[in-house]
Amino acid sequence: MIDPVIPPQTSLEERLHGPLPTSVIPRTADPNIVYGIALITHAGRVTDHAVFSGLSWRPGTRLTLSCQDERLILVCAAPDGSVRMNNGGFFQIPYRQRRSVGLLEGDRALVVAHREQKRLLIHPPAVLDGLMSQSRRILEGQL
After folding, report:
1. Pick from 71, 95, 138, 143: most CB atoms within 10 A?
2. Are 109 and 125 contacting, i.e. CB atoms less than 8 angstroms apart?
3. What top-level class would CATH report for the domain 33-138?
4. C-alpha distances in Å from residue 3, one per residue of 6, 71, 75, 106
5. pLDDT at position 133, please?
6. pTM for this model (two decimals)
């Protein structure tokens, strides 16, 4: 009897190059700090599943949002928070807060989280310009 021929259950790319990497949270000097880059989508949606899971924020988690120095948005888990994590794994930044820090639809923002404190800081692109000034000078050939 001839054994049946069963096609492989993995994609050709995976068979040639090995399994695809899973989403890994980058390591930092402080294991409580988690970094990510979040896309701000329509209606102020913010999503970064790796960072949110590092904070143990699940659908239904209530959050408070506040503007820090009119440049950053601080997000904290709070039982009486006015914003909550959605079933899709995101939360929404209200329009006035987005506008006050210059965060626009389509922007990518640096998100920095502290696992123990359950706090997240959102850095809009304008803030990143200031933080990355030396890197920009290197890229422009000025250093």
Report:
1. 71
2. yes
3. alpha beta
4. 9, 66, 59, 54
5. 83
6. 0.75
